[in-house]
Amino acid sequence: MTPEELVRDHTVYSCVMGSRAFGLATDDSDTDRRGVFLAPTPLQWRFEKPPPHIEGPAEEQFSWELERFCELALRTNPNILECLHSPLVEHVDDTGRELLSLRGAFLSRHAHRTFVQYAAGQRKKLDADIRRHGAPRWKHVMHLLRLLTSCRDLLRTGELVIDVGDERERLLAVKRGEVPWPRVESWMTRLADEADRAATTSPLPPEPDRRAAEDFLFRTRQASASRTRPGP
């Protein structure tokens, strides 16, 4: 079975991500599509396993196999968690709906560490841009501020909301380079400090619900095995 067939015939959930999902789209924004596919269980019984992720077949499209997706979600990978909370769902079947019902199982206080670590990596890239070019890539600055805000609010409320809402115009001003860098630095520092404080009293559980995710994956694989037979 080709990668294209896996995405075309076995996707259980797909959504739009990026600026369009974040409420930051402008006329020149791309449409980034992300998805989850369930490789038929008999393919897992071969020496050559299905790919854990697939790029394409369309432009700006990327998909994960369900098990890999759940593994990353349990590690509170920011990109994966945000994918589960996209307001722009394009396709979902029964398996996908059950996956969405488990969104809360993947959320935990570990998000503080993973989101902040991801943000720190992005900040290093911005600092490198400033050293080389005298200015950061403002689009990346905007998304870093968005991520830090999302992290802080997740830790405060226990809910992940990725649409920036009323912050849209303020963040787009950053993207246009209209906000001085010292003010942006102060903004990032404040958000990081607020996230640190929120982590100490967060309503999130200390650990994700690994058992719930594993039970879901087991049942899904079992159901797939009963529907399909190994090919020659």
Keywords:
alpha+beta; 11% strand; 10 helices; 2 domains; 5 strands; Beta Polymerase, domain 2; 232 residues
Tell me the number of structural domains.
2
**What's the alpha carbon Rg, rounded to whole Å?**
19 Å
* CATH-derived topology of the largest domain: Beta Polymerase, domain 2
Strand element count? 5
- Shape label: globular
Order of helices and strands: HEHEEEHHEHHHHHH
The amount of beta strand, in percent, is 5-15%
Biggest sheet details: 5 strands, mixed
CATH architecture term of the largest domain: 2-Layer Sandwich
> What is the straight-line distance between the termini?
12 Å
Name the strands of the widest sheet in spatial order. Answer: 3-4-2-1-5
* Unreliable sequence segments: none
The CATH first-level class of the largest domain comes to: Alpha Beta
Helix content: 40-55%
Multimerization state? single chain
Count, helices: 10
Estimated structural class: alpha+beta
Mean pLDDT equals 94
